[in-house]
Amino acid sequence: MSDETILPDRDKFASAADYAYATLRREIVEGRFAPGRRMREIELAQRLGISRTPTRQALSRLELEGLLALRPRAGLVVSVLDMDAVEELYEMRAALEGAAAGMAARHASPRDLALLTRLLDEETGLGSEPLNLYRHNRELHEAIHMAAHNRYLEKSLHALHDAIALLGPTTLAATGRPVIAHAEHAAIVKAIAERDDALADRLARAHILGALDVRRAILERERRLSARTDQDDA
Asked: Mind telling me which Gene3D superfamilies this protein's record contains (predicted)?
């Protein structure tokens, strides 16, 4: 994803701690702070232009949410997920995304369907910038979650999306994936619009499991590259 950082308007937040939390959370979720990155309080406070106390409060909140983890000798770092966690995460997401699409097919309002159609149309003109693809993809999926009209499901999916961000670059950065994802999105939205809840559920599950296949390939390439680097340094 792009390294360009545009800090949000601080005046929109009730406190410096809220501003720090929202800003750092976005940096993590959008991949600017990579897994394993050390989160030094002094450095982050200077980056945000605030004191250390609200920065410390924001970091504690992010740790409670699981986006940060405490490591011996390193301190707080952006959480790193192992392969078992990746598999579990995608399996749970497939189940919940399927449920959301199925519920959306039953409960989506005309306004919900209009939003899904608009987002689907916009998808073809996004270009190839991974961050833009990621943001739009999340917006479309969140529109499906909202169309399900189940607040508990929506909250669970929101947490899963944040956890998936810990894996690093979006799978939409993989060659050919945006075209495949768009076709899958179109089929899901069509099933929702036609009120076919069983099909919408099945297509959404398959869509997420397809992303898992791409993620496995990305992680395997990273593992091989790391092993090759270690050999070269030996």
From this structure: GntR ligand-binding domain-like, Winged helix-like DNA-binding domain superfamily/Winged helix DNA-binding domain
Which range, of 3-7, 34-38, 214-218, averages the lowest pLDDT?
A: 3-7
Residue 231, pLDDT score: 62
* Identity of the amino acid at 85: A
CATH number of the domain where residue 68 is located = 1.10.10.10
Domain assignment present for 199: yes
Cα(64)–Cα(67) distance, integer angstroms = 8
Residues 71, 90, single domain; the answer is no
Residue 96 sits in the same domain as residue 51: no
Q: How far is CA 154 from CA 10, 32, 52, 118, 207, in A?
A: 27, 25, 33, 21, 18
pLDDT of residue 83: 85
The CATH code of the domain that includes 111 is: 1.20.120.530
Amino acid at 175: T
Distance CA 227, CA 9 (A): 42
Is there a single domain that holds both residue 67 and residue 89? Answer: no
Cα dihedral: 158, 164, 170, 171 (round 10): -110
Beta carbons within 8 Å of 88's beta carbon, 6+ residues apart = none
Q: Residue 214: its pLDDT value, please?
A: 93
pTM: 0.75
Within this chain, do residues 105 and 206 fall inside the same structural domain, yes or no? yes
Q: Specify if 46 maps to a domain.
A: yes
- How many CB atoms sit inside 10 A of residue 153's CB? 16
Q: How far apart are CA 87 and CA 61, in angstroms?
A: 26
